[in-house]
């Protein structure tokens, strides 16, 4: 088998994200073999016009657009699959310049790694990954040229942009060639602009595997640590957060602790959602016991708080668009707080409460987080007389 090197590049397509949401939402089409072959022919022509040496390489492309979160994942599964297909073709033949297009049958790609994920909320940027393969010396030379030229002169021709628009069924506002370095730098700028630089650091660590573990903090004091195998996410219950954790300096009067914990939870969930979308392994741990992995879909916390008033059996603490933050259950065995750890955890914890305690009393939905200001602990709602 001849020695072949690979360069991972992509077409970054700025689309109209409103098409992916709402009543008449539609996702980009997945192309069949013939359409994929035509798209690759267009793109290879554009590449060769800027970098003639590309004509001596093999170009591999799948007939699907991917959200950047599916492209930027540990081990780069989309690229790894394209490269393995090229390598497999060389076991029985000498290397020669060619175009390798992988299309779908009935909307399904022949390899799972090349199937666009249908559970990712699509955004403004869609990507079309390409692998450029050839002699290692040539690829090294081309790689340097691509890193240098794409940002300045990587824009697709109008003909190619129209072909993308017509075949994939998306609005192409702008389309250009990029390297993975370019995409990562752009992603860095985006997250930094919105105050999520630590999130980018975690993603970069998970994808590029640094030599040492990495610890970062979110804006609200959320703690995350890349261990080399997964991101450890330190979960803080309200009681811990308010007394010993990130919220211990917050004043307790009014609803300041409620607002503060809702903000903490919102950003914590944003980190988890983004890391999940990039297929980064996650391990949630208790902030006050980091050696304890939280393996279920929800957490149960016992509380010693007591009330002199009659209280509601179930209180669902929530905050606007964030939804449910915790559920407090009062039973003969004591006071327990239930926290969903993943989206399905809310249904699971309600099922567990029904199975364990039953729900025979009142249920309260106060629309906020209820807590006792003096003890800085989560509390159930009080029965109205």
Question: What do you see in this structure?
Answer:
By secondary structure, the chain is of the alpha+beta class. It is built from ten helices and 18 strands. Strands 1, 2, 3, 4, 5 and 6 form a six-stranded mixed β-sheet that branches. Strands 7-8-9-10-11 form a five-stranded mixed β-sheet. β17 (371-372) and β18 form a beta hairpin.
Present the secondary structure layout:
Elements: E1 5-14, H1 33-50, E2 58-62, E3 66-67, H2 68-71, H3 77-89, E4 99-102, E5 125-134, H4 136-153, H5 158-168, E6 174-179, H6 180-193, H7 197-208, E7 214-217, E8 223-226, E9 231-235, H8 238-243, H9 256-277, E10 282-286, E11 289-293, E12 298-303, E13 314-319, E14 323-331, E15 334-340, H10 345-356, E16 363-364, E17 371-372, E18 377-378
Parallel strand pairs: 2-4, 9-10, 13-16
Antiparallel strand pairs: 1-5, 1-6, 2-5, 3-5, 7-8, 8-9, 10-11, 12-15, 13-14, 14-15, 17-18
So how many helices?
A: 10
Estimate what percentage of residues fall within beta strands.
15-25%
Give the averaged pLDDT, no decimals: 93
Whole-number radius of gyration? 26 Å
Strands, total number: 18
Unreliable sequence segments: none
Main sheet overview:
6 strands, mixed
Structural class label: alpha+beta
Order of helices and strands: EHEEHHEEHHEHHEEEHHEEEEEEHEEE
Helical percentage: 25-40%
How would the global form be characterised? elongated
Distance from N terminus to C terminus (CA atoms, Å) equals: 83 Å
